[in-house]
Structure formats: structure tokens, C-alpha cells
Design goal:
- The chain is built from 15 helices and 19 strands.
- The chain has a nine-stranded mixed sheet with strand order 9-10-8-7-6-5-4-1-13, with helices on both faces. It has a three-stranded antiparallel sheet with strand order 14-15-16, with no helix packed on it. The protein has a three-stranded antiparallel sheet with strand order 17-19-18.
- The protein is an alpha/beta fold and 453 residues long.
- The chain is 38% helix and 21% strand.
- The chain folds into two domains: 338 residues, pyruvate-formate lyase- activating enzyme (Alpha-Beta Horseshoe), CATH 3.80.30.20; 76 residues, Arc Repressor Mutant, subunit A.
- The protein binds S-adenosylmethionine and iron/sulfur cluster (SF4).
- Iron/sulfur cluster binds next to loops.
């Protein structure tokens, strides 16, 4: 059990490290020409060997969940679907025009917003067009985020026929009081029906998204939720720490107050309880906030050392090229990032004029590429090895802080190796923060990240 003092000491604001450099520290914006050069160079090097990944952002939702920090647009007007899909295909064609052979797609992830907001025939049109202009990797993994409220049998069978075998259901919590305050009432039976339909159709992997630290959550509500979850036997579970970021535009987080939130040790206890219950039910903890059945590919990837982390979270493999289509999507060419316009109208407008619709990005320096790999190792394998001269320009204060992590029992240092201890796993974001040169040299003066616990 972690002490309250330790939790309070390390519960500071910090990045979740789905990328390095983290988005607020992007500074070397690529020009459109530079971006094209990065895309073409990584495509030539990696398409035949690794294939590419595709993330497609579908931003619409019919109602607002008050905890949500995702980039979404709330509407019940389904006339928005077709123009948005046309824009996605224009953007896809822009990328295709940069490639001298057919892309081999290893991974597709439909995220949101709510992908199942879109009618099955519109999803079919979008995806069949993309799939007809590319090749399918022999180890392809296609998945989508599904809202239990509007995932019909037709959605499931349409996407299955296109090659999708994974889905991720947003559950969050089953307690009626928590569901009421987060404006997301979805009874167990509704979720059970989607799970049964998906399994009957042939889906091979079902993930559940849960959050700990939501308003009005307590130990009893988390225990009740996990008992129900275990009845449905998902293959994977993401058990996210609630990120309280009320400054994000379009959020609903101002609909409850900080007083409604479990904090510090109380919040961490919710995670520890969940972890014990998942482990007792046969799941293995993966990285920072994920669980998977022992026989799942994610657990095997952790054992084999091939676990990877990207903007979508943990994955079983690494592709150097990830194209993010749609408003707010981030593309990652390993040596450079670019983020698309966040507002749907700006995105559609840019793409219509034939521009790759990004509004900011970052080209990584060689030093940043080194740190990127170190942080990835820590997030995925809980250990890493520093290059020989890594600490040469560290200040005394920074070295002392690294030592303090060791004195507090969170890491073990042996020569150039750093290993996160069992106790340190709760503080993995804090451990990465000491290695993050950019954060160390320029600490934020206002709140830009959620708290680490
Ligand atoms: C795009 S949503 C999932 C798809 C679909 N919109 C749904 O809600 O079912 C992705 C996931 O992000 C997580 N999420 C959203 N806001 C969060 C926050 N403030 N803190 C932690 N996790 C959050 C939720 O678990 C959610 O299921
Ligand atoms: S949690 Fe999902 S459904 Fe709810 S507002 Fe966010 S993206 Fe939309």
C-alpha cells in the first residue's frame, strides 16, 4: 500500500506521454514541404517492412459526457456525416498522391467522438474506399471505439465484413449516481447486448474503457462496476485515471465541482482495488493503466518486449508511420509530428483547398529522438538504458531529484540502467518527467497537464 505522503509528494501536474515531445512543447513546426519530405522518406523506408497505421477521427457525439476531455462535437444532426466523410477521403487522397506504391495498412483505429454516430452505410463507403486503394497487411489489426448506446448489429456486421475484429466499448462506470453526474446513463443490459452481438458476429477482441477518479465514485461503486465487468469477460481493459482538465474548450467538466472528485490517496485506492480485482480474475497489468488476459497479444507483447505506445495508448507492435486523418488528428512519422485543424469547419476548409490540413507540428532533434525512446521504454517495459553521456549537462538539482526517486524506492539505478520498482509503477509519469529535457528546462507556469495520480 502506497503512503499518503508519497502520493501527495508526487501528485503534480504532468504529461501522459502519448508522445515525446509532448504537444505543448512542440516548437519546430514543419513547413508543408518539410512535412511531405518526412512522409515520403518514412513511407519508403517502412511500408514494405512494417506497413503503416491509420487513425481516423470521427468527432461527433449525440450527447455530452461531462467528464470528457476528447476532441468532440455534440450534435443530433446526422447531415454532418457525408461532408465530413468526403473531407476524410480528400485528405486520404492527398496522402496517397505522396506515395509511389500502394500503402500496406497494418492498423486502422476509428476513434472519436463516437465512430458509431455515423450510419453503417457511411462508414462502409469511407472504409471500402480506403481499403480498395491500399493493401491489407497479413497481420492487420483493425478496431474501433464503440458507444454502447448506438452500436447496432448493423454497425458491427458492416465493420466486421470490412475486416474489423476489435472493438473498444466506452463503459466508464456502472454506478447509477456516477452515470447520472457524468451524463452517461447506460445500464449493464445495454452493454451486455452489444458484447453478445459482437461475439456472435465473430469479433475476436473486446476492450472496455473504465475511468477511476470520476465525480461521486467511491470504493463500493468501483467494486460493483468491476464485478459487473468481470461477468462480461472483456479481453482487455483500459482503466484510465480521470484527467481533470476543465480549461479544455468544449468540455463539460464545469458541470461538477472539484469537491465531487476523489483525490490523492483516495483516488489511487480506487485503482489499487480495481487492480487487485482484475488480477484475481486472471488479468495482467500492462504498462501504466491497462489490463489484458494472460493469453492476449498485449500480454505477450509485454513479455516479448515488443509493447509499444502511441497516441491511442498501448499497442502490440510499432509502425514508424501513422497517418491521422480527420479534425484534430495527429500524424506521427517518428521523426516528425503534425496535428490537423481541431475545428471541423477549419479542417474541411483546408482539405478542400488541397492542403494537408495540419496547423502545427514538430520536427524532432537527435537529442529528442533519444529521449523519445527512453520514455517509451519506461512506459512500456518499466526499464531503460541511458546512453553514456546522457547526464553530462544535468544540473546538480536535477541529479538530486533523480536520486530522490531512488531514495523513495520508485526506481533502481545500476550503471546506465534504470528500472521502475513495483512501488514506482504508480509514479511512472513522474519518472518520465525527470528525463523530459524540455519540461525540465521550461516548467509550465499555468495548468496545462492533468495531475499524475
Ligand atoms: C473517444 S472516447 C470513447 C468512444 C465513445 N465516444 C464512448 O464514449 O463510448 C475515448 C475514451 O477516453 C476516455 N476519456 C475521455 N475523457 C477522459 C478524461 N477526462 N479522463 C480520462 N479518460 C477520459 C474514456 O474512457 C473514453 O472511453
Ligand atoms: S466520452 Fe465519448 S460519447 Fe462521451 S462526449 Fe466524450 S467522445 Fe463523446
Amino acid at each position: 500500500m502506497l503512503s499518503t505522503e508519497l502520493i501527495q509528494k508526487y501528485n503534480v501536474q504532468g504529461p501522459r506521454y502519448t508522445s515525446y515531445p509532448t504537444v505543448p512543447y512542440w516548437s519546430k513546426n514543419p513547413t508543408p514541404q518539410e512535412w511531405i519530405e518526412h512522409v515520403q522518406s518514412v513511407f519508403r523506408q517502412s511500408n514494405a517492412e512494417e506497413g503503416i497505421s491509420l487513425y481516423i477521427h470521427l468527432p461527433y457525439c449525440e450527447s455530452l459526457c461531462t467528464f470528457c476531455a476528447c476532441n468532440k462535437r455534440i450534435t443530433i444532426n446526422h447531415a454532418v456525416e457525408k461532408p465530413y466523410i468526403e473531407a476524410l477521403l480528400k485528405e486520404w487522397n492527398l496522402y496517397l498522391s505522396l506515395m509511389d506504391e500502394k500503402p500496406i495498412i497494418k492498423e486502422i483505429h476509428l476513434g472519436g467522438g463516437t465512430p458509431t454516430f455515423f450510419q453503417p452505410e457511411n462508414l462502409h463507403f469511407l472504409l471500402s474506399t480506403i481499403l480498395n486503394s491500399s493493401e491489407k497487411h497479413e497481420e492487420a489489426a483493425y478496431g474501433f471505439e464503440a458507444h454502447p448506446k448506438n452500436t447496432s448489429k448493423e454497425h458491427l456486421s458492416t465493420l466486421y465484413d470490412l475486416g474489423f475484429r476489435r472493438l473498444s466499448l466506452g463503459i466508464q462506470d456502472f454506478d447509477p449516481e456516477v452515470q447520472r453526474i457524468i451524463n452517461r446513463v447506460q445500464p449493464f443490459e445495454m452493454v451486455e447486448e452489444v458484447v453478445n452481438n459482437a461475439r456472435a458476429i465473430g469479433y475476436e477482441s473486446i476492450n472496455f474503457d473504465l475511468i477511476y477518479g470520476l465525480p461521486k465514485q467511491n470504493l463500493a461503486s468501483v467494486e460493483m462496476t468491476i464485478d459487473l465487468i468481470n461477468r462480461l469477460v472483456p479481453d482487455r481493459i483500459a482503466f484510465y485515471s480521470y484527467a481533470h482538465v476543465p480549461w479544455i474548450k468544449g468540455g463539460g467538466q464545469r458541470l461538477f465541482t472539484e469537491a465531487d472528485l476523489p483525490k490523492d490517496a483516495e483516488k489511487r485506492q480506487l485503482y489499487e482495488t480495481g487492480k487487485q480485482m482484475f488480477e484475481a480474475a486472471g488479468y495482467v497489468e500492462i504498462g501504466m493503466d491497462h489490463f489484458a488476459k494472460k493469453e492476449d497479444d498485449l500480454s505477450k507483447a509485454m513479455v516479448n518486449g515488443t509493447l509499444h505506445r502511441n497516441f491511442m495508448g498501448y499497442t502490440t507492435f510499432h509502425t514508424s508511420m501513422m497517418i491521422g486523418l480527420g479534425a484534430s488528428s495527429i500524424s506521427d512519422m517518428w521523426t516528425a509530428f503534425a496535428q490537423n485543424e481541431k475545428k471541423v469547419e477549419d479542417y474541411i476548409q483546408k482539405v478542400t483547398t488541397g492542403e494537408i490540413p495540419f496547423f502545427r507540428g514538430h520536427i524532432l532533434t537527435n537529442e529528442e529522438l533519444v529521449v523519445r525512446q527512453l520514455i517509451l521504454d519506461i512506459m512500456c517495459q518499466f526499464e531503460t538504458e541511458f546512453p553514456d553521456d546522457f547526464f553530462h549537462d544535468w544540473t546538480k538539482k536535477r541529479k538530486a531529484q533523480l536520486m530522490e526517486l531512488e531514495e523513495d524506492g520508485l526506481i533502481e539505478l545500476k550503471g546506465n540502467r534504470l528500472k521502475v520498482t513495483e512501488k514506482g509503477k504508480a509514479f511512472v509519469r513522474n519518472i518520465c518527467m525527470i528525463i523530459d529535457d524540455l519540461l525540465w528546462n521550461d516548467q509550465p507556469q499555468t495548468a496545462i497537464f492533468s495531475k499524475t495520480i
